[in-house]
């Protein structure tokens, strides 16, 4: 099973939500952007 990790802030999605420092095997990660970073990028006008 792949773990989603934010490409901007490095948080990862866990069964309890977004976590700051989860221990995850890098071979089982996929990059995404978390909702917090999406909001920041939208305010900066970089994302829709």
Overview of the structural elements:
The protein is an alpha+beta fold and 48 residues long. It has one helix at 35-43; strands at 3-6, 12-14, 17-19, 29-32. Helices cover 19% and strands 29% of the residues. The protein has a two-stranded parallel ribbon. The longest helix has 9 residues, at 35-43. It is elongated and about 35 Å long. It starts with a strand and ends in a 5-residue tail after the last helix.
Q: Give the radius of gyration.
A: 11 Å
Q: Strand count, sense and closure of the main sheet?
A: 2 strands, parallel
Class derived from helix and strand content: alpha+beta
Distance between the termini: 29 Å
Overall shape: elongated
**Low-confidence regions:** none
Q: Which range best describes the helical content: under 10%, 10-25%, 25-40%, 40-55%, 55-70% or over 70%?
A: 10-25%
The helix-strand sequence is EEEEH
| Strands in their spatial order, largest beta sheet | 1-4
- The amount of beta strand, in percent, is 25-35%
Helical stretch count? Answer: 1
Number of strands: 4
User: How much is the average pLDDT?
Assistant: 85
């Amino acid at each position: 099973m792949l773990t989603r990790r934010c490409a901007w802030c490095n948080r990862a999605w866990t069964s309890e939500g977004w976590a700051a420092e989860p221990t995850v095997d890098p071979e089982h990660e996929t990059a995404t952007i978390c909702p917090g970073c999406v909001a920041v990028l939208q305010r900066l006008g970089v994302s829709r």
